[in-house]
Amino acid sequence: MQSLERTLAAVEGSGRDLNAVTSVMSDRARTLERKTAERASAGQPARSLDGVAFAVKDVIDVAGHPTTMGSKVSSGPDPSTTAPVVSLLERAGALPVAKTNCQEYSYGILGDESAFGRVINPIDPALCTGGSSSGSAALVAAGMVPLALGTDTAGSVRVPAACQGIIGFKPTFGAVPTEGVFPLSPSFDTVGLFARELPLLAEAFKVIVGGRQGPTRAEASLAGTPTASRTPGASLAGTPTVDLSLLKPADESSTEALTWAEHHLGESALAAATSANFDRLTHLIERGIGFYDIVRRYEAYVLHKQFLDDQGEQYQPGVWAKILAGQDIAEADYRSNVASLDELRASAESFFDDVDFLITPAIDGEVTEWDELGPGSAAKFMRYSLPFNVLGWPAVTLPIGAAIEGAMSASEPAMTAASRAKPASVQVVGPPHSDEKLLEFVAGL
């Protein structure tokens, strides 16, 4: 494990070169490291994350450090308390070293709009980083920290992970506390994790949830938003049944993912695989996306309308336009869609009566270069991630292509896309509240 001082130096130097860092938390990290040393001197047992450095997306509060949201907009005073998700990692011995740059207020999947500018992709500066948790992904991809926190409302952990060649995990909706995390759309927001090593990610998740079952938070800031009743998914007795319905041989996005699945599942799992649920999955996804569009736009507008009159001009143009897109949605229409969303989530769980996991592409197509982004790019990035925010199911994106060991620092000379392979990833999805089983399954692939 790299020393804290070397990590802090890397984050302060190369991390800022990548434009991935908004503040470095040197004093906090050193204080916590000292306490760990004192525990060891007193003969206390080591904790599971002792000495593990981690980064925190800058929409998550850490006391004594500004939460910028990647914005020039002022959303209140600097926090005096730390978000529980950070405190839980600290109690297990982890050391927070940096707040990370992100898409402004988490509102965008490309990572193209922040008051601090774009994060640089350590795999290849020409490639889009994905968003909104761009900076957290970059610090992990560049090898500066082994672990980072992000948030995921439509893929904002999994998509940057796929674009930057690392592991990204979105837990079951409601499993991780979101207090002290500035919301985008509370009906979908989830705190997620980045790592290069799955065992570390799994241990960090275990620390955060503490063995709890089911939702652990009150419905976030919009009063009256109901929470769907959710139950654990199918039992994993024997060979798990894996659904491959969204890996279509004729679909260019699926080719590499399908080859990977056939190689890694093994003969017994392939015998239990099914592709018979395409129509049902497509129906669930199409219904859910309509609810997502109304609910997300309404909730985001309600959260930001307090800032619009005095600070509207301070927003990034694209983010400003997205926020205003919710201003004409009637509350009654919103409430109706929330109720329908909850019904969909409850009824969709029966999908796992006969299936244990799904494997899908992580994004639609290759990772796009910055200068190739167009009107349809966001939809392609979210095609496979967004549905599982809508349904609330846990999902992991896992790199299967270009080796992350090749990640470059911002100080290295740029390479063309032709000379550096683009990262490729798959997504593995499980039933709600099967998070640890999902991570165990992925670890065995």
From TrEMBL:
It holds the Pfam family Amidase. Residues 216-235 are annotated as: Disordered. It is an enzyme of class 6 (ligase). One of its GO terms (molecular function) is asparaginyl-tRNA synthase (glutamine-hydrolyzing) activity. Its EC number is 6.3.5.6, 6.3.5.7. Keywords: Ligase, Transferase. It comes from the Bacteria. Residues 4-439 form the Amidase domain. The keyword rRNA-binding does not apply. InterPro entries: Amidase, Amidase_CS, Amidase_dom, AS_sf. This is Aspartyl-tRNA(Asn)/glutamyl-tRNA(Gln) amidotransferase subunit A. It comes from Brevibacterium marinum. The lineage of its organism: Bacteria, Bacillati, Actinomycetota, Actinomycetes, Micrococcales.
